[in-house]
Amino acid sequence: MKSTESTEQNDDMLAEYSFDYSKAKSNRFAKQSSTVTTIVLDPDVAKVFTTSEAVNKALRAILAALPNAQLPGKAR
Q1: Are 55 and 49 in contact (CB under 8 A)?
Q2: Phi-psi sector, 59: left (phi>0), alpha (psi -120 to 50), beta
Q3: CA distances (Å), origin 75, targets 16, 63, 67, 71
Q4: How many whole angstroms from its chain centre is CA 15?
Q5: Which of 39, 60, 66, 74 is deepest in the core (most CB within 10 A)?
Q6: Residue 34: pLDDT above 80?
Q7: How far is CA 17 from CA 13, 14, 33, in A?
Q8: Residue 8 and residue 1: Cα distance in Å, rounded?
């Protein structure tokens, strides 16, 4: 038999919450690293680009084709 206490707690929970992330602060205790960025690919894209090197190569090719794109550290 379930207790009524756990049922009351679940009634207070909303199905969805909306958070204002514009007021979020970075974790001052987390290691500061600007070298790694994680991006989640859709499953169909991940089947084609199986490594980060493959993704970077494709993105650099696209950037090279854009007239105003400039990679950091590359002079034009």
Answers
A1: yes
A2: alpha
A3: 48, 14, 14, 8
A4: 23
A5: 60
A6: no
A7: 9, 7, 30
A8: 15
Helix intervals (H) in the chain = 4-12, 43-48, 52-65
Q: How many distinct helices (H) and strands (E) make up the chain?
A: 3, 0
> In a 10 Å sphere around its CB, with 0-12 CB exposed, 13-18 middle and 19+ buried, how is residue 70 labelled?
exposed
| pLDDT band, very low/low/confident/very high, at 11 (cuts 50, 70, 90) | confident
The 10 Å CB-count burial string (b at 16+, else e) for 22-54 is: eeeeeeeeeeeeeeeeeeeeeeeeeeeeeeeee
| Average pLDDT score over residue span 51-55 | 92
Residue 11 tokens read as: 């009634």
- Written as six digits, the tokens of 39 are 């991006």
Q: Token pair for residue 5?
A: 């206490």
